[in-house]
Amino acid sequence: MHPPSAEGHVNATDVFVSCSFGKQAVTKMSTKDKQKVYAQWSETYEQDVLDNDYVAWPICAEKIFAVMSNMASEENISRPFKLVDVGCGTGYLGTLVSDRLKSTDISAFLVGVDFSSEMLEKLATRSVMTS
């Protein structure tokens, strides 16, 4: 399944690029229409994005991990970090960060926020973030 638009069917790459880079196809939709798109896309969103060679999630996860590692060692922070992922979708980024932290003594409290309740339902199945 490809992400639908409010008006009809759209190629996954088109919607993804629109959402990620501010193109007009999605940015001019009302919030309600955007919610419909993401509600219908929630079933295949993650795989569609990965199939289109999206590289931001692993890059962001590594950057977040590097900052947390530096703060933990340089500033001797031992309390859990608090990380909020705004527009978290299915929580894939949180999973990558959580997986990266498992091999360390760094702990973090991860919170995901998204306007799509269907995406948050997918997030809830991961058990790595709260919403």
Automatic annotation (TrEMBL):
Alphabetized InterPro entries for the sequence: Methyltranfer_dom (IPR025714), SAM-dependent_MTases_sf (IPR029063)
Signal peptide: none
Limits of the Methyltransferase domain: 64-126
Spans traversing the lipid bilayer: none
CDD domains: AdoMet_MTases
Gene3D superfamilies xref list: Vaccinia Virus protein VP39
A Pfam family: Methyltransf_32
UniProt protein name: Methyltransferase domain-containing protein
Organism of origin: Gracilariopsis chorda
